[in-house]
């Protein structure tokens, strides 16, 4: 049984007795393993003695997503389709719009289940689906360890305030589950649309006419199997020493799991158990980031309707930045110059190249990167918008609660006021001298060049 606090009834309609199957609308949790929404949908199908269909809808114009994001996602979905097939569950992918496909399915749906989502567009899809649903509609929390509203009923000020509330709940909610085949697999009806065939991903991608900013990322392969490999490699060779090495950009000592978490190709619960069970001292530091910091970002996006705008920042940060808005900047760059990594700062340019050419950015450099955009833009508000646009367009985990919170942190969110200075006001300051004092920055530049060469060899 799925923990009741994970389940929200979004539309309280009676079961559609004329329906032929239960539908799990997969969107945020693009996996089979440790998928509470899928498990709940199987429970519903078994109780009603109906088969289960898993549905996915493609939104080709979704925010700033590029071809490389869709490639990564579709690689994962192709794997999902194969795994579901082994369980006797059909997987239908609609090619042109989530809601359009759902509307075609609706007359045949007994019960509709989906995974919970947090950003504005994803919440709107669920609200609209609830509006035309002809059956009960459930959302199941699958992508955080502790259900959001079990932790707090408000936007939390900082990691410290969330930590006090969430720590005692983690062990209870981190329940491992097994996905079993539904009792009834025979399906008499054909899909009401022609599902996309995921056997030829290049053909599918070409048919979607997607934007293609940023280099292709053949070094980042999507899917559950790849996510589990990365997790195993991280636990085996990088977790020990993580606390001291994770911030050094000359090392690649992170887990590399962020894109897989973003697309729901791996569960945070799986990661929690793999790391926690090692009993390594460094596990505590990693789990702080996986749970407290990550779920603080989800809290921010859920409770703050202005999470993607300058106006969503804390009042003290906006006041301080606005007071210093007219301060003389040492240099101003256009958005195009920033996008192309054409500044005077070799470390910033390397971080931007890492973003555009490799699809990721070292976590410590991402903080520095955002601070410099603030320093080099005409106004704080324009700086915020630029940082968010670059992050959402190029990061493989762009348009994610972590990304929104990460950009906002550069402008004071989840931080405290610091000593006042020009341009930044009371916002925490970072500079290149600080990087050089702490890290081997020549090593960082060399690492990025080497990784780009390796990427090019794969292309």
Automatic annotation (TrEMBL):
Residue stretches making up the Photolyase/cryptochrome alpha/beta domain: 20-148
Q: Which PANTHER family match?
A: DEOXYRIBODIPYRIMIDINE PHOTO-LYASE, DEOXYRIBODIPYRIMIDINE PHOTOLYASE
SUPFAM superfamilies attached here?
Answer: Cryptochrome/photolyase FAD-binding domain, Cryptochrome/photolyase, N-terminal domain
Q: Which residues cross the membrane?
A: none
Q: Which UniProt keywords apply?
A: Lyase
Under Enzyme Commission nomenclature, its number is 4.1.99.3
PROSITE patterns on file: PHR_CRY_ALPHA_BETA
Name its co-factor(s): (6R)-5,10-methylene-5,6,7,8-tetrahydrofolate
Q: Where is the signal peptide?
A: none
The molecule here is called: Deoxyribodipyrimidine photo-lyase
Show the GO MF annotations: deoxyribodipyrimidine photo-lyase activity
Query: Domain of life here?
Result: Bacteria
């Amino acid at each position: 049984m799925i923990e009741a606090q994970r389940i929200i009834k979004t539309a309280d309609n009676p079961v559609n007795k004329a329906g032929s199957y239960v539908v799990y609308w997969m969107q945020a949790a693009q996996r089979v393993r440790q998928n509470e929404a899928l498990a709940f949908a199987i429970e519903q199908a078994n109780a009603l003695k109906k088969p289960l269909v898993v549905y996915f809808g493609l939104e080709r114009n979704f925010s700033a997503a590029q071809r490389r994001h869709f490639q990564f996602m579709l690689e994962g979905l192709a794997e999902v389709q194969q795994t579901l097939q082994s369980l006797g569950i059909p997987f239908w992918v609609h090619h042109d719009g989530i809601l359009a496909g759902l509307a075609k399915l609706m007359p045949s749906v007994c019960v509709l289940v989906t995974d919970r989502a947090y950003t504005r567009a994803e919440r709107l899809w669920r609200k609209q689906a609830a509006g035309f649903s002809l059956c009960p509609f459930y959302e199941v929390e699958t992508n955080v360890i502790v259900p959001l509203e079990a932790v707090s009923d408000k936007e939390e000020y900082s990691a410290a305030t969330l930590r006090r509330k969430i720590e005692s709940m983690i062990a209870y909610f981190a329940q491992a589950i097994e996905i079993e085949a539904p009792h009834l697999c025979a399906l008499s009806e054909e899909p009401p649309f022609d599902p996309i065939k995921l056997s030829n991903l290049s053909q599918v991608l070409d048919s979607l006419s997607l934007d293609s900013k940023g280099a292709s990322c053949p070094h980042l392969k999507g899917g559950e199997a790849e996510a589990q490999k990365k997790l195993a490699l991280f636990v085996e060779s990088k977790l020990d020493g993580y606390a001291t090495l994770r911030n050094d950009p000359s090392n690649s000592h992170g887990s590399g799991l962020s894109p897989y978490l973003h697309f729901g190709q791996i569960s945070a619960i799986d990661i929690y158990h793999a790391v926690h069970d090692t009993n390594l001292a460094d596990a505590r530091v990693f789990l702080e980031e996986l749970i407290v910091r990550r779920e603080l970002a989800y809290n921010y996006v859920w409770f703050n309707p202005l999470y993607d705008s300058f106006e969503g920042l804390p009042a003290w940060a906006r006041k301080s930045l606005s007071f210093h808005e007219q301060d003389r900047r040492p240099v101003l760059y256009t958005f195009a110059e920033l996008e192309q990594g054409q500044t005077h700062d070799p470390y910033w340019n390397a971080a931007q190249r890492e973003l555009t050419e490799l699809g990721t950015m070292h976590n410590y450099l991402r903080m520095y990167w955002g601070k410099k955009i603030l320093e080099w833009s005409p106004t704080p508000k324009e700086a915020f918008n630029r940082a968010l646009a670059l992050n959402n367009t190029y990061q493989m985990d762009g348009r994610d609660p972590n990304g929104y919170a990460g950009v906002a942190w550069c402008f004071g969110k989840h931080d405290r006021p610091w000593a006042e200075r020009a341009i930044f006001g009371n916002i925490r300051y970072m500079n290149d001298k600080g990087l050089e004092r702490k890290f081997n920055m020549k090593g960082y530049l060399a690492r990025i060049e080497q990784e780009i060469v390796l990427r090019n060899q794969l292309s």
